[in-house]
Each structure stands twice: as C-alpha cells, then as structure tokens.
Design brief:
It holds the Pfam family AI-2E_transport. It is a multi-pass membrane protein. With 123 residues, the chain is mostly helical. It has one domain. The chain contains 3 helices and no strands. It starts with a helix and ends with a helix. The model has no long low-confidence stretch (mean pLDDT 80).
Length: 123
Amino acid sequence: AYMLNQPMKKLEKKFKLRRGLSVLIIYGITLIILIFSWLFIVPVIESNINELALSIPSGIDQIQDLINNISSQFKFDITNPDIKAQINDFITKVLIPVSSFTASTVSNFIINLMSTIVSYTIN
C-alpha cells in the first residue's frame, strides 16, 4: 500500500478523483499487472530455467570436448584412466545434479514469490 501511495496521489490530483476511487483504480491496475505477470512472464521464465537445466549436460559434454582438444594440441595427455573416470564421475554425479537442483530451486522461488505477491495483493 505504501508503494502505491504516490501513484494514487498523482491520480487523485491530476484527474480530481476521490481518494477511494483513486485507490480502487490503482489496486485494479496493480492486480492486472500481477495477473499478466503470473500468466505470461512467469511461465516463460520457468520454461527458460527448465531449458537451461536440460542443456547443462550437453554443455558439459562440450566442455569435455574442449578440454580434450586443448590437451591434444598441447601434447597434454591424461594417461591414467582413473583420473579420467574420476573427472567424468565428478561431472555426472556432482555438477549435473547441482545445476539441475539450482535451476529448479530458482524456478520454484520465482513461482512462490509471484504467488505470494498475487495472494497478498488480492487479500
């Protein structure tokens, strides 16, 4: 309500409206903006985060290929198969789950934040 006070005062002065009508108009505009955000913007953000989470494994494969290309150009060869296995295990067991968890956490946070804002505004 505090953040909407200034727009309400400007609307009240500019159009010489009563305070109650100004409040109603500002709350209506705010509600429309929040509903628009909830219906159109949040799903786009969520799908982008999900796409990012799905593209992380291919990105990790590209990084592995880049490391292999660099190591072959500089005659830097990892001959110990245990080290290669440990690197691959680290990537598949740590990096991929952590990145997927982070993406889903951010997505859930945005959805929860928007639902809290909408429910607070409606009530």
